[in-house]
Specification:
- The chain has about 475 residues and is α/β, with parallel strands linked by helices.
- Helix content is about 35%, strand content about 10%.
- The chain contains 15 helices and ten strands.
- A seven-stranded mixed beta sheet has the order 1-7-6-5-4-2-3, with helices on both faces. It has a three-stranded antiparallel beta sheet with strand order 8-10-9, covered by helices on one side.
- The structure holds pyridoxal-5'-phosphate (PLP).
- Pyridoxal-5'-phosphate binds near residues 172 and 246.
């Protein structure tokens, strides 16, 4: 353990100071807190110098991984670079000092951002209008499904209680439908990883509220039968919901509205380059076609007009690219994913070999080295993911989607250079070679990360979030 791996409390030294408050020039004449609200004794804060604090937090920041420290090919999560100009715009004093309870007449600039964003997203998606209240993709899904339900109820069509969700869908889709009180009906994918139209047909009837689809789906494949699917679902009286969390491969090229979707959400924190992860602020605006505009929520989904700072960053990103350049995002995302996919398919199993969009899925190693391990167990996808950390790369998404046992889902994103992608490919090849030679190197990885293999269930279910005095 390095000295600065200690908690800041453990670095504390009685009387040491990093900052001294100026003396109160007004003495006791300022109103003091009432006696009952004051502390009996000073809080047990760490007593440290400025340099202790700076080193402590700088070292702590280096124990984590982020898009600003390295390549982050996390499929489905679209961890693309967040341009710093977004931050500059969001930090402009006129935006920073806004208060959510200010009268509307004092905030025409913020209103212009909402209006501009509404127009931009409508142009990009083919929807009529958006609400910016939802604070995440899943929040948007729930909002969109409530709009779907409201539409049917407004027509007195009360039988429609079921939502069709493909088996390849992101886990939030069935979860949101269940939270909305709808029954989830699964539709299978065919051998090419696309929604099986023949399997869909018998599910359609007068009890179907709609279908939720992701296109390109979570395997990174474009659902080329979408026009036919849309016609079938509309024919039975249902609506089409589009999960646009990762719309980056389609930007400026194809619009969900033109595919036949009625309702959709976008993840600004994936598609439009705003920061995410660690439960930070997100934004999942929901758009609807004109015939559903009356069902958009007023201000009831969340207070204070959603995460304004995030919406502002996404708007800066869209304006920076403009109509001419935004379609390059989709092209580069697609090119990068196909380049990686083709470069490694001799050492990682590629179950679906067709051209992908922004992401694709391998199904584990071609040679897992089982014959070289003392216990006969070869290296798994988890072991590949752990070994990547040793080389300074974040792991791809693993064991999702659930269609394959050793899923390794890679999304390089449009923001990486060929040199970075080549370095990743080289390391992936080296790891595959290690697995074939000596799988224990992978099974014991990572060898040089701050922590190695936490018990993932305990870490998720019973995290230790509180300082425990070990001195
Ligand atoms: C990330 C994601 C979601 C959920 O978004 P959150 O902001 O995490 O709630 C939904 N669908 C897909 C396809 C996603 O990738």
């Amino acid at each position: 353990m390095k000295y600065y791996d200690k908690l800041v409390f453990e670095l504390s030294k009685e009387g040491r100071r990093g900052f001294t408050l100026p003396e109160n020039p007004y003495g006791r004449c300022v109103k003091e807190l009432p006696e009952g609200l004051r502390r009996a004794s000073a809080p047990a804060l760490p007593q440290v110098s400025e340099i202790d604090v700076v080193r402590h937090y700088t070292n702590l920041s280096q124990m984590n991984f982020g898009v600003d420290t390295g390549f982050y090919p996390l499929g489905s999560c679209t961890m693309k670079y967040n341009p710093k100009i977004n931050e500059e715009v969001a930090n402009m004093p006129g935006f920073q000092a806004l208060h959510p309870l200010q009268p509307a007449c004092t905030v025409p600039g913020a209103q212009a951002v909402y209006d501009g964003m509404d127009k931009a997203l409508a142009a990009i998606t083919g929807m009529a209008h958006f609400t910016f209240l939802p604070c995440a993709g899943a929040h948007g899904e729930l909002t969109g499904l409530m709009i779907m339900r409201q539409y049917h109820m407004s027509r007195g069509d009360l039988k429609r209680t079921k939502v069709i969700v493909p088996d390849s869908a992101h886990g939030t889709n069935p979860a949101s439908a269940a939270v909305c009180g709808l029954e989830v009906v699964e539709v299978k994918s065919n051998a090419m990883g696309l929604v099986d139209v023949e399997a869909l047909k018998p599910l359609l009837g007068d009890d179907i509220a709609g279908i939720m689809m992701t296109n390109p789906n979570t395997l990174g494949l474009f659902e080329k039968d979408i026009r036919e699917i849309a016609a079938l679902v509309h024919e039975c009286g249902g609506l089409l919901y589009y999960d646009g969390a990762n719309m980056n491969p389609l930007l400026g090229m194809v619009r969900p509205g033109d595919m036949g979707f009625d309702i959709m959400h976008l993840n600004l924190h994936k598609t439009f380059s705003t920061p995410h992860g660690g439960g930070g602020p997100g934004s999942g605006p929901v758009g609807v076609a004109a015939h559903l505009a009356q069902f958009l929520p007023g201000t009831v989904v969340s207070g204070f007009h959603g995460n304004f700072g995030v919406i502002l960053r996404a708007y800066a990103y869209i304006l920076m690219l403009g109509k001419q350049h935004i379609k390059l995002a989709g092209k580069f995302a697609t090119l990068a994913a196909n380049y990686v996919k083709e470069s490694l398919k001799d050492c990682y199993k590629l179950p679906i070999p067709t051209v992908c969009k922004h992401e694709f899925v391998y199904d584990g190693l071609v040679n897992d080295g089982a014959d070289k391990a003392p216990d006969g167990h070869g290296a798994t996808t988890l072991d590949v993911a752990k070994r990547l950390l040793d080389f300074g790369f974040h792991a791809p998404t693993i064991y999702f989607p659930l269609l394959f046992h050793q899923a390794l889902m890679i999304e390089p994103t449009e923001t990486e250079s060929k040199e970075t992608i080549d370095a990743f490919i080289e390391v992936m090849r080296r790891i595959a070679a290690e697995a074939a030679e000596d799988p224990m190197i992978l099974r014991e990885a990572p060898h040089n990360a701050p922590i190695r293999r936490p018990d993932e269930t305990t870490a998720a279910r019973q995290p230790i979030l509180k300082y425990q005095d070990t001195l």
